[in-house]
Amino acid sequence: MDAIKATAESWMTDFFDLETKEEVKNLIENNPEELKERFYKNLEFGTGGMRGVMGVGTNRINKYTLGKNTQGLSNYLKKTYPGQDLKVVIAYDCRHNSDTLSKTVADIFAANGIQVYLFSKLRTTPELSFAVRHLGCHAGIVLTASHNPPEYNGYKVYWEDGGQIVPPQDGEIIAEINSLSFEDIQFNANPELIHLIDTEVDEAFFEASVKNGNFNAAGKDDFKIVFTSLHGTSITAIPEVLKRAGYSNVTVIEEQAVPDGSFPTVESPNPEEPEALSIAIKKAEEIGADMVVGTDPDSDRLGIAVRNLEGQMELLNGNQTMVLMTKFLLDQHKEKGFKGNEFIATTIVSTPMMEQMAKAYGIEFKTALTGFKWIGKMIKDFPDSYFIGGGEESFGYMVGDFVRDKDAVTSTLLACEIASDAKAKGSSFYEELIKCYVRFGFYKENLVSLTKKGISGAEEIKQMLKDFKENPVESVQGSKVVWIEDYNTSIAKNAQTGEEKPIDLPKSNVLIYETEDGTRIAARPSGTEPKVKFYISTNAKLENEADFKSVNSQLDTKIQGILAELNL
C-alpha cells in the first residue's frame, strides 16, 4: 500500500492540474480502497486497445494516461519514420469526454510536430480505419470503449495499413510509453498542424461501403428494416449507406438515434445482449419489418434479428450472421470464378463451421487469435492473397479489405442484401441459414460471460482459468476429450495418445478442449472487460430442412447439459 500511496502522491506535483490534485488528496485522506483501485497498476493494452473506467489515476482513462500513450506513440513514430512528414488521423465516439480527450490527443501530436487530421464530430471506427489509408497517414487513433458500460472510455491505435497494432510493434510502443514519466508529455500544441476533416472522408467511405456491400439484390422496395444506433456513431453512416444502396423502407428508432454516452434507453449498448435491441424488435413487430439491425457505440459490431420459421423476430448470434454473410460472398466470387488465392478467416473461439465452408468451396481458411487485429494482420502478412470476408463470434464482420477492422456499416448493408434477395426469391435470411446447416453441418454455439470487477475480480478470473487447466475436462456429455489446445504453451496435446503438436499462433491465455464428437469448449479472459468467457460449440448432422426444429432442440439440450457439467 505504501507503493500505491507513493504513486498517488506523485500526481500532486505542479505538473498536474488543480482538480486532479484535489481529487488525489481526497482519495488519500478519505478513501484508501478506491485509491488502491485507481493506482495499483497502469492501464494496459488488450485485444481491442486500451480501455478503462474514466477518472483520476494510473488505472483510469484520463488526459494524463492517454497523454502518456500519445507522447510515447509520437516518439515511436519519429524513430520508425525518421525525416518523414508524419501524419495521424483521429476519430472519437459518443462517450462522455471523447471529444475533449480527442482534442488533447491531437494537441500532443501537434506539439510533437506531427500533422493531425481530426474529425470535426463523432465518427465510426470503421471510417477511422478507412481514413488512415485514404489520407495516407502513418497512424490512426479512435477514442472509444466500444460496447463497454458508460463509465468507460478507451484508445485504439491503428497503423499505416489501417489495421490495429499487433506484436511486436505493440510491445515496442508500450516499451516507449513505459520509458516516459508523465512530465514528459508535451501538451502545448502547434495549432497550425491540426486540420479538421468531415464530408470529404465521409463521401469516400460511403462510396467504398456501397461498392463492397451492395450486390444489387432484388426486392429492395419491399424490404422493411428497423435500425437503431443505440445512441452511438452509426447514425452518421448506416442510414446514408442504406439509402445510397437503394433501401427506402428504413425505420430509425428515434429515441436511440441521438448520440449519448449515458446510453439512457438500454442497460448495455451491446448488440450481443437481447435487451439492447428490445425497443427495435418491438417496433419491427408493430410495423411488420423483415429485419432489425443494431450497432454498438463505435459501430464495429452489429446485432441482427430476423423472422424465424414461426414468423417471430429472433436475434441471431455472431456465428450465425458470419456464416451466412461468408456463404453469400463465396457464392458471389464463385460465380465470377475463383482465382485460387482467396481466403476467409475467423478466430479460434468462433464456429468451426467456417472451416467446413472453406473446404466445401475449395478455398483457403485462416484462423486467428481472438481480436479483429489478427484478421487485419493476415491481410498485411499475405499481400498476394485475396481476403473475401470473415468475422468472429462477438458480432463482428469485415467485407473485403478496404476497412481493416470489423465494420458494422458495410456488414449491415451486406446483411440487408442477403435478406432482401432471399425474400424476393420466396425464402428468408433464417431459411438460408438453415440451408447452410444442411450443407455444411449444423453447428450451434453458446457463450457464458462472467463479470468479475476490481482487484479481487482479476484474481478470481486468474484462479478460474488456472482451475480449468489444472483439472482437465475428460469428457463432455459422454464424448471423450481428444485434444487439449493450450495457447499459453503453444501446444495441442492428444489426451488419449499423448501426441503433441505445435500451435502456430502467438501465445495467448486461451485453453480449448475438443471431444470425439467435435464439441469444443474454450475459456479465456476478456481483453477489454473484467470478464472470463466460456465458449461452447456443438454440432450435429442435419439431413434436411424439415428436421431443423428437432435437431435444434437436441443441440439446445446438449448445451444445457454441458453448462450443468461445468457448473456454468
Automatic annotation (TrEMBL):
GO terms for biological process: carbohydrate metabolic process; purine ribonucleoside salvage. Keywords: Isomerase, Magnesium, Metal-binding, Phosphoprotein. Residues 44-182, 206-305, 317-437 form the Alpha-D-phosphohexomutase alpha/beta/alpha domain. It comes from the Bacteria. The keyword Isomerase applies. Its cofactor is Mg(2+). InterPro entries: A-D-PHexomutase_a/b/a-I (IPR005844), A-D-PHexomutase_a/b/a-I/II/III (IPR016055), A-D-PHexomutase_a/b/a-II (IPR005845), A-D-PHexomutase_a/b/a-III (IPR005846), A-D-PHexomutase_C_sf (IPR036900), A-D-PHexomutase_CS (IPR016066), Alpha-D-phosphohexomutase_SF (IPR005841). GO terms for molecular function: magnesium ion binding; phosphopentomutase activity. CDD domains: PGM2 (cd05799). Pfam families: PGM_PMM_I (PF02878), PGM_PMM_II (PF02879), PGM_PMM_III (PF02880). Belongs to the phosphohexose mutase family. PANTHER family: PHOSPHOGLUCOMUTASE 2B-RELATED (PTHR45745:SF1), PHOSPHOMANNOMUTASE 45A (PTHR45745). This is Phosphoglucomutase. It comes from Flagellimonas meridianipacifica. The lineage of its organism: Bacteria, Pseudomonadati, Bacteroidota, Flavobacteriia, Flavobacteriales.
